[in-house]
């Protein structure tokens, strides 16, 4: 690809457009966190340590490249470990351009739904 064509592609898909894309499996572009907030993992990080998709965690310390967190659910309740930033590529076919974000694979999770079936009384 020549340099002129690349610049025109960058003009078409500027940072504002790429940052506004919200698709399944990607956290929002801007994630506002505080110490103590409950979060949920969006990717499997370490299955042997029960750091799987859907695991609820609580933020203990924030850093630029890692987040220290405590597990709230599962077999490892109270376990403390670090979550790194990861390269994430959306797989949604409706996205007009292929791009990559380097961010934490978590979303804020104040509430969760639990489906429970009831038998007849």
From TrEMBL:
Gene Ontology CC terms, in alphabetical order: replication fork
DNA helicase Pif1-like 2B domain ranges (all copies): 16-62
A Pfam short name: Pif1_2B_dom
Entries under InterPro entries matching the protein: P-loop_NTPase, Pif1-like_2B_dom
Gene Ontology biological-process annotations: DNA replication
Record PANTHER family: ATP-DEPENDENT DNA HELICASE, DNA HELICASE-RELATED
Protein known as: Uncharacterized protein LOC107493435
Organism classification: Eukaryota, Viridiplantae, Streptophyta, Embryophyta, Tracheophyta
